[in-house]
Write a structure and sequence with these properties.
Helix content is 50%, strand content 21%. It is an alpha+beta fold. The chain has four domains: 32-137, Immunoglobulin-like (Sandwich), CATH 2.60.40; 141-280, no CATH class; 323-472; 474-575, Immunoglobulin-like (Sandwich), CATH 2.60.40. The chain starts with a helix and ends with a strand.
Length: 576
């Protein structure tokens, strides 16, 4: 047993090490990397088409689109969006001919490879007009649908966890096959997993399209989901759960005999079910995908082994108060729980490192905070599990000692067997210790279910770097005085270094005859860089400029209001 344990731990360590060596940039929710025309650009003439490029393949189907409208809201695209040249990472829409000057908005909605929708806008100007930028959001859609989806995911994870206790019944505790409580528990897990999978399959369409949960039976949305990788994986999960139901109907009977073949088939079906979870989640789009999926499957399997075993203990084994069964089950479960804890810690650390991506995202993004919450709860699980282990070792030591004695006598031969009645009398367990153990395991189970709830929310969140990048792209502003109660507000969109759009908004009543601007970053010894400004409206000027490095940029302004009146001022913009 010890040799196998260390061998398994060595294998896990090798997988983690390989993951660290081969790991590329984590990519789960798709992000926009470029567009043609570029967002916020000014063109001399109208383009023939609009193309948006993403960092991974995205789907259109029946819920995705790319529409282009003019400043009056009239559609100016000539047809449906498509992937040019079959390139799944690009979406193109052709425009009608003869378009005049004005502001145009390209609105898009696509579904990323991990099933999450992405929507936003790209804006550009032809000729004269106000220069504006678009926006991108990776969390879109109907709030009720998103919330219902979180509940469905929780049902799926909870069902998987409850089903995980089946290993204890099919291998170590054969008496549990005809135990009513154990049977109800297993079938409850199967029902939760099946219901969760079905709901996820039906909700994916409304979730992707931004519709309400009342649209989950819409045929076109269901058809769109069934043609996606996400939908096919969930169909496979439902088929595997159906096969498992047939096995359970045969195995969980009073006259059923323990069979290694049944245990092996149940294990194979379990591995397949876990694979559908990993393949449809973040790990399926994290490079290298094969390694990320394997480690995520290890994580989910360890979770189901530990939590499922806990549930079987608290709901079925401990209430029976059978010393012989406790002697058989507790030592094996203790070892399995320890191995599961190590696997969870190792694979969870890898997933957290890949998912968060940077220290700055830990406490500044929802993803990072959820991971921190899982870590805190996991440490609580370790504490509770260790307390239970000590209780078993110290309070139930006589029971475990008799287990060792029985095994030794059995190996010595039948003539060495003691009288059964005498052994039973000596192995009566302490009811108070059993009750304390049951309560400890119950609390441990409740905490583990809370971890599953956090996991259900976590898988729907943009990862740390993605969320942080979205935050960094939010516009940043600064205000500078112009004297006599007047001021100017300068806004950079996006709030990251590179090509940005600077917008200057003067306080009411300020109408300059001329305004000039330069950008300088003294720390990097860059600048001054002239900013070419165009009047976009009353008291509003804008212009595009390249600010090549991150940090504090000093924007120097000279605002001329008459032949004899000019005011110099400056403001600091901090770009990421």
């Amino acid at each position: 047993m010890t040799r196998r344990l260390f061998g398994g731990l060595a294998l896990l360590g090798a997988l983690l090490g390989t993951g660290l060596l081969l790991a590329g940039p984590a990519s789960a929710h798709a992000t926009v990397v470029a567009s043609d025309p570029g967002d916020g650009t000014r063109l001399k003439s109208a383009p023939k088409s609009v193309t948006i490029t993403f960092d991974e393949s995205v789907g259109l189907g029946n819920v995705g689109y790319l529409h282009v409208t003019d400043q009056s809201g009239r559609r100016v695209d000539a047809g449906a969006a498509f992937h040019p040249g079959g390139n799944g990472s690009k979406v193109t829409d052709t425009l009608t001919s003869g378009l005049g000057d004005g502001t145009y908005t390209a609105s898009f909605r696509v579904v990323s490879a991990d099933s999450h929708p992405l929507a936003g806008t790209i804006r550009f100007v032809v000729g004269n007009g106000a220069l504006a930028r678009g926006s991108v959001s990776s969390v879109t859609g109907n709030h009720a649908t998103s919330q219902t989806f979180d509940y469905a995911r929780w049902l799926s994870y909870a069902g998987l966890a409850v089903l995980g206790g089946l290993w204890l019944i099919l291998t170590v505790w054969p008496a549990g096959r005809d135990d009513r409580r154990a049977g109800r528990l297993v079938w409850t897990g199967w029902g939760l997993a099946t219901l969760g999978a079905a709901l996820e399959l039906l909700l994916q369409g409304p979730y992707s399209s931004g519709a309400g949960p009342g649209q989950l039976l819409t045929p076109s949305l269901i058809d769109d989901t069934l043609h996606s990788n996400y939908g096919q994986l969930h169909c496979i999960r439902l088929v595997l759960l159906g096969a498992l139901a047939v096995l359970l109907a045969r195995a969980l009977q009073a006259d059923a005999r323990a069979s290694r073949a049944e245990a092996a088939v149940a294990g194979a079906l379990g591995v397949g079910i876990v694979w559908t979870f990993s393949g449809a989640g973040h790990s399926g789009t994290t490079s290298p995908a094969w390694l990320s999926v394997v480690l995520d499957m290890s994580h989910l399997t360890a979770m189901a082994t530990w939590l499922g075993g806990l549930l079987v203990l608290v709901a079925a084994v401990l209430p029976r108060r059978e010393p012989a069964e406790l002697r058989a089950v507790l030592p094996v479960f203790s070892t399995a729980a320890f191995v599961s804890m190590v696997v969870l810690a190792g694979s969870g650390t890898y997933a957290a490192w890949r998912g968060i991506g940077t220290v700055h995202a830990i406490f500044t993004t929802t993803y990072g905070l959820l991971v921190v919450g899982k870590i805190v709860l996991f440490l609580g699980l370790i504490t509770l599990g260790n307390w239970s282990r000590l209780l078993v070792r110290n309070r139930m030591r006589p029971t475990l000692a008799y287990a060792i004695t029985d095994a030794t006598l059995a190996a010595a031969g039948p003539e060495s067997d003691p009288d059964d009645d005498e052994t039973d009398d000596e192995t009566d367990d302490d009811p108070a210790a059993t009750e304390r153990l049951r309560r400890s395991v119950l609390v441990e189970t409740a905490v583990a279910l809370l971890v599953l709830a956090l996991t259900a929310v976590l898988v729907a969140q943009p990862r740390g770097k993605e969320a942080l990048a979205a935050q960094y792209r939010e516009p940043v502003s600064a205000t500078a005085p112009l004297g006599s109660g007047r001021s100017v507000t300068i806004t950079s969109d996006p709030g990251t270094h590179g090509t940005v759009n600077l917008t200057l908004e003067l306080s009411p009543g300020t109408e300059p005859t001329k305004i000039t601007a330069t950008a300088t970053q003294a720390a990097a010894q860059v600048g001054p860089i002239p900013v070419r400004l165009t009047r976009a409206g009353k008291g509003v000027y804008d212009g595009s400029v390249s600010l090549p490095v991150a940090g504090s940029w000093e924007i120097d302004l000279v605002v001329t209001t008459s032949q004899f009146d000019a005011t110099s001022t400056d403001a600091i913009l901090r770009l990421h």
